[in-house]
Design goal:
Elements (H helix, E strand, L loop, with lengths): L10 H9 L21 H5 L4 E6 L2 E7 L5 E4 L1
Antiparallel strand pairs: 1-2, 2-3
Length: 74
């Protein structure tokens, strides 16, 4: 009868495993990120509470709620 023992990595391999950062497909270096255009909701709505956006033949409504939240609906 044999007794199960936990397996361990050699010292060099365990150090390497702890030193590697976890990569994510969403993580990119700052210099590789494309600049995103930013637009103020005030400039979009121009004092109104609703804006209709036409996209690929459909209309989307961007509304400003009483609680100053934005809602986009089709």
């Amino acid at each position: 009868m044999s007794i199960a023992t936990p397996l361990s990595l050699p010292v060099a391999a365990s150090r390497l495993a702890h030193s590697l950062p976890l990569a994510s497909p969403r993580t990119r270096p700052v210099e590789m990120r494309a600049a995103v255009r930013r637009v103020s909701s005030l400039s979009l709505l121009e004092g109104e509470r609703e804006l209709v956006i036409q996209h690929q033949g459909s209309e989307y409504h961007l509304r400003l709620t009483r609680n100053d939240k934005l809602i986009l609906t089709k």
